[in-house]
Design brief:
The chain has strands at about 5-10, 20-25, 40-45. The chain has about 50 residues and is mostly beta strands.
Length: about 50
């Protein structure tokens, strides 16, 4: 798997639990549009994930 291409990750607001999907590489994690605080990574959305 090549890490050079843009990969989706799910980020979540630690306060209100708002989630959003952004693509790596990004400079900074986005701010929550509701709380205006820095969101954190919830999950890496790799293809071929098994449950």
């Amino acid at each position: 798997m090549s890490r050079g291409r843009r990969e989706p990750i799910e980020v979540i607001c630690p306060k209100c639990r708002y989630t959003e999907i952004v693509y790596l590489p990004i400079e900074d994690l986005p701010l929550c549009p509701q709380c205006n605080i820095r969101m954190s990574i919830s999950e890496l959305l790799d293809e071929g994930k098994s449950y």
